[in-house]
Amino acid sequence: MQFKDIKRQTVTANHLTEIIDSGRVSHTQLFLGETASGSLALAIAYAQYLNCEHRQHYDGNGPDGLRADSCGECPSCKKYQQLSHSDLHLYFPYAATSQVKGQGISAADFQGEFREFLNAKHQTGTLDEWYEFMQIENKQGMIRERDADDIVRTLGLKSYEGGGKVAIIWMAEKMNLTTANKILKCLEEPTPNTLIVLVAESTDKMLSTIISRTQLVKIRTISNGFQNVSDEFRSLYVTWMRQLFKLNMASLSAWVDTMNSKSREVQKQFLLFAQESIRDSFLCNNAGLPSQIDFGDEKFNASFPAMITERNIELLNNAFNEAIFAIERNAYGKIAFMELSFRISKALKKR
Question: Which of 12, 70, 249, 301 is 20 to 30 A from 165 in CA distance terms?
Fold first, then answer.
């Protein structure tokens, strides 16, 4: 992965290449941000640049304003492009599958599948997409003690190819306590010529002792906008809002069942879309701004914005924030969506 392949993260990419060029590379770094915004892709591009034999410098005149990038042509870069470099070590959450079972499983058992997933998703696939790829949607993956042992052992060995050894731990917040404490030893007693990059979307469940020993790199969230939202999301939203206005319990229950059948990531993305739609209606109704979202229903487009006023916008926004928070923490979708539905219905009546 080269920095030029990561869209809309030029500022962060330039910061990272400057760190390496200045020789100020911290032994352990924490890339904090959404995978969909490029946090993992940036970590891999960073490692590739670190080991590149012929770094390219553009003085800010490179693709999209890049100051520098890896060459993409040297033997090291070509191996990084295929995620096959001997000194690149990837760790990630996983769970037993129908093919790989037992108490002794580790990330090593899923390396092929993980690389295939990263290549298919251009290194921006989400955790739920990874679980779906592994066909473990209803299980909780984690990074285990055996992985920590492997990290300690691997980083203690000499480099295979003479460059720097790199361990990238994706979704580092999925380490259990034992794993985190073992990895802490690597951070406190770093071996020479090694780089550990923790990639996380949240630090809420990470040990403060680990966070304090890392150099933080915040990854800017990249909004994809709502121009390309699926027709299914638009239809689900329109149906939902109409049901909540009338509060037809039979049809609402069927709608909630539909949402509950979807993956957590789809549920979260729908809620983000719905929250943005509410905000769009508020700006349309109260600030006179043109609507940015077409729901494919002229009557709904014309009438619904009037339902969102200064009296209920804060109630609605808080309700969505709490529902999204609950889904992110694996709440039962049926309960989360039903509770949110009641709160929205009540708020709409306060217009």
Answer: 12
